[in-house]
Amino acid sequence: MSENITVAGLVATPIKHTVTAEGLEISSFRLASTSRRYDAASKAWVDGETNWFTVTAFRHLAANVHASLDKGHRVVVAGRLRVREWRNGEQLGRDVEVVADALGPDLAWGRAQYTRTPRRIA
Amino acid sequence: MSENITVAGLVATPIKHTVTAEGLEISSFRLASTSRRYDAASKAWVDGETNWFTVTAFRHLAANVHASLDKGHRVVVAGRLRVREWRNGEQLGRDVEVVADALGPDLAWGRAQYTRTPRRIA
Amino acid sequence: MSENITVAGLVATPIKHTVTAEGLEISSFRLASTSRRYDAASKAWVDGETNWFTVTAFRHLAANVHASLDKGHRVVVAGRLRVREWRNGEQLGRDVEVVADALGPDLAWGRAQYTRTPRRIA
Amino acid sequence: MSENITVAGLVATPIKHTVTAEGLEISSFRLASTSRRYDAASKAWVDGETNWFTVTAFRHLAANVHASLDKGHRVVVAGRLRVREWRNGEQLGRDVEVVADALGPDLAWGRAQYTRTPRRIA
User: Fold this and answer.
1) DSSP string, B47-63
2) What is the mean pLDDT of residues B101-108?
3) Which chain B residue has its CA at the smallest distance from D37's CA?
4) Do D108 and C68 touch (CB under 8 A)?
5) Does C114 contact D67 at a Cβ distance shorter than 8 Å?
6) Number of H helices, E strands in chain C
7) pLDDT at residue D122 is higher than 50
8) What per-residue confidence (pLDDT) applies to D120?
9) A57: nearest CA in chain B?
10) Contact D85, D62 (CB under 8 A)
11) Cβ–Cβ of C53/B83 closer than 8 Å?
12) Nearest 5°: phi and psi at A65?
């Protein structure tokens, strides 16, 4: 199974935008999502822990992410989760990535002026 | 369990915006989501069936949905699914609703100019 | 987009099991899922509303659902949501279905003795 | 937002079961989930990459996981995703955990004999 995931959170870095030699557009950024939990002791909702993700977008979506988003924006991202292990010499690491299928600025935190753009062939 | 659901699709009606006597803002619209499926016969991806939802937003999110969205826009919505049965005399019906927690114009289909708005107490 | 959904709830009807003329096995049942919500007035978690679904399984999964599950069991179901409108003469209706990809008895409510079965070609 | 996630995959380690000094039961195991993707070149569905998770269950669910599951079983898990960073001297790492809310042996891969167990107060 491919793990579908939806994350709402804060764009925590500038958008990194690249175009490969083959002309493939890629945008990526770090996203911080802080859950809210009910605290039985204080009988109030409080900030819980924060999950960090690398969000990656390709092609048409990458171009529009680059043109529309910035550090500090609130977004909602729907995509597929990828957990990747890597080795760099002695160093072992693990990346947690969301490959975005749909992505937009979150209207729970702001307003947006939206313009449809022509879609090239996917 | 509360059923969390994420839908990406087309805003198919104008935004209906109301304020209750108690001052609660509510925005709602109909959302059409058409899946894509791989057709073995034609060996191509084709349009599948369409799911229809009523999307409902409250408070701050309702105000920003009203100010930002319109019929024909593409959006991504994360929320909780509600399946409700109703009776109207002889008539029985069933409504399928998504109560939105996060919602934005989908950058897979367009660009957005986003402005953070001050949040009143939730 | 195809709406992925996960539901944990109660099997509310006997399992209906059929085999089509082409030899396709199908199992289906009604599933009731009751959410829990925090009630600010009583400062306690209480039962919320109930969502009803028709769960449908095909092929190998259908055979094992038929052999393993019964009314009154608690299950967890992961699949794709289908909202279908139908007309029967004057009557219009709407069905809310989950086409199951993965499905099992919920260990949050009981124990299970599990045996892997050989898989025919999907 | 808390990231809800559903994973179907293979139990890749024996179940680790502990009881804290306070009497809290905890069960955990490693879960491997391999996605399937359509390969345009060979025009066939092929194995994609594998996501690895640590699945953790508490209390009643932990007891039933311990009594019911084993390495090699196929399961479906619904829960909340936690991405945690840790430091051990020079070493930095990242854990990807699913805290299970509902969890069962997957009937897509086998049969189960299920017995409801009395629930202690959650």
Assistant:
1) EEEEEEEEEEEEHHHHH
2) 98
3) B38
4) no
5) no
6) 1, 7
7) no
8) 55
9) B108
10) no
11) yes
12) -60, -45
- pLDDT tens, B48-77? 889 999 999 999 999 999 999 999 999 999
> Which positions ≥6 away from C2 have C-beta within 8 Å?
B35, B36, B37, B48, C80
User: Do strands C110-116 and C74-88 pair parallel, antiparallel, or not at all (unpaired)?
Assistant: unpaired
**Rounded Cα–Cα distance for residues B52 and B49 (Å):** 10
Bridging pattern class, strands C91-105 and C44-58: parallel
Name the residue type at position C99.
V
Q: In this complex, which chains have at least 3 CB pairs below 8 Å with chain A?
A: B, C, D
Q: Which amino acid belongs to residue A85?
A: E
Output the six-digit token pair for B120.
Answer: 């009143």
Helix, strand, coil distribution of chain D in percent, nearest 5: 10, 65, 25
Tokens of A21: 């030699």
Burial class (CB in 10 A: 0-12, 13-18, 19+), D59: middle
Q: Give the list of residues 6+ apart from residue B68 with CB closer than 8 angstroms, or none.
A: A107, A111, A112, A113, A114, B105
Ramachandran bin of B113, using left for φ above 0, alpha for ψ from -120 to 50, beta for the remaining angles: beta
In angstroms, rounded to a whole number, what is the distance separating the alpha carbons of residues D14 and B91? 54
With H, G, I as helix, E, B as strand and everything else as coil, classify residue D92.
strand
> Which of A33, A34, A99, A114 to substitute to test the interface with B, most B CBs within 10 Å?
A114
For residue A61, give the H/E element and its range.
Answer: helix A59-68
- H or E element that contains C61: helix C59-68
